[in-house]
C-alpha cells in the first residue's frame, strides 16, 4: 500500500495578490517559507519526494531536507495568455464556461482535461509499482486532478473545492481502489 501526500506550495506574492500563476516561476515569499516549514512538521517523514519543476514547489520541498526528483506531470496548469492576470479580469461568462467544461483552454493554455490526463497517468503508474509514503509538492490544479482521480469523478469537480497555500491532501493507493484520507489540511 502507498500513501501519497500532495502538498501545495507555500504562498507567493502572486497568491497574496489574487493573480493566476500557472507557469510563472515565482519564488515563495516570507509567509510561504514559514508555511512550508510548518507543513513539513505536520506531514513528518516521507520515503520519496517528487516536485513540480517550478521554484515555488521546489522551495517548499527543500524544507524536508531530502533528495527531490522533479517531474513535469506535476507542473501547474498552463494558463497561457492569462498567466499573471488578476482573477477579477476574467469575465463572468468565461469563468462559467471554464467551470463547466473540462476541455476549455485559456488562450494559448492547457485544459483541465489535459492536465488531468497527465496526473492520472502518473498516479496509475504509482498504483502498479509502489509501496511507500510519497510526497508530491505541486500546485492547486494537479492536486484537484489527483483528488478527481481518487474519487473517480470528472476533472470539473475541482471547481467545487478549495486548497489553501501549503495545505496537504493525502490519498492511499493499493492495487484496487484509491481512497481520499485527508483534504486541504493546514497548519495555521
Written description of the protein model:
- The chain is an alpha/beta fold.
- The chain has a single domain (2-185), classed as 3-Layer(aba) Sandwich (Rossmann fold), CATH 3.40.50.1240.
- The protein is built from six helices and six strands, in the order E-H-H-E-H-E-H-H-E-H-E-E.
- The chain has a six-stranded mixed beta sheet.
- The longest helix has 18 residues, at 112-129.
- The radius of gyration is 16 Å and the shape is globular.
- The two termini are 30 Å apart.
- The model has no long low-confidence stretch (mean pLDDT 94).
Which shape, going by the Cα principal axes? globular
Q: Record the strand order, biggest sheet.
A: 3-2-4-1-5-6
**Largest β-sheet summary:** 6 strands, mixed
Q: Quote the distance from N terminus to C terminus.
A: 30 Å
Mean pLDDT: 94
Strand-residue fraction?
A: 15-25%
Report the CATH superfamily. Phosphoglycerate mutase-like
Write the layout of secondary structure elements.
Blueprint lengths: L1 E7 L4 H5 L12 H14 L4 E4 L3 H8 L5 E3 L21 H9 L11 H18 L3 E6 L1 H12 L16 E6 L5 E7 L3
Helix pairs in contact: 5-6
Short summary of the structure?
The chain contains six helices and six strands, in the order βααβαβααβαββ.
Structural key phrases:
188 residues, alpha/beta, Rossmann fold, six-stranded mixed sheet, 6 helices
Amino acid at each position: 500500500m502507498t500513501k501519497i501526500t500532495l502538498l501545495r506550495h507555500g504562498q507567493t506574492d502572486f497568491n497574496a495578490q489574487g493573480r493566476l500563476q500557472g507557469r510563472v516561476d515565482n519564488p515563495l515569499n516570507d509567509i510561504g517559507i514559514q508555511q512550508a516549514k510548518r507543513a513539513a512538521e505536520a506531514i513528518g517523514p516521507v520515503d520519496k519526494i517528487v516536485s513540480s519543476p517550478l521554484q515555488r514547489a521546489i522551495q517548499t520541498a527543500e524544507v524536508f531536507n531530502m533528495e527531490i526528483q522533479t517531474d513535469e506531470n506535476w507542473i501547474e496548469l498552463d494558463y497561457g495568455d492569462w498567466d499573471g492576470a488578476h482573477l477579477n479580469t476574467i469575465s463572468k461568462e468565461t469563468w462559467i464556461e471554464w467551470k463547466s467544461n473540462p476541455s476549455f483552454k485559456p488562450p494559448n493554455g492547457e485544459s483541465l482535461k489535459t492536465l488531468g490526463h497527465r496526473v492520472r497517468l502518473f498516479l496509475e503508474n504509482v498504483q502498479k509499482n509502489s509501496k511507500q509514503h510519497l510526497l508530491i509538492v505541486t500546485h492547486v490544479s494537479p492536486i484537484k486532478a489527483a483528488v478527481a482521480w481518487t474519487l473517480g469523478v470528472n476533472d470539473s469537480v475541482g471547481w467545487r473545492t478549495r486548497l489553501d497555500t501549503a495545505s496537504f491532501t493525502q490519498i492511499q493507493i493499493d492495487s484496487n481502489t484509491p481512497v481520499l484520507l485527508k483534504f486541504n489540511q493546514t497548519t495555521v
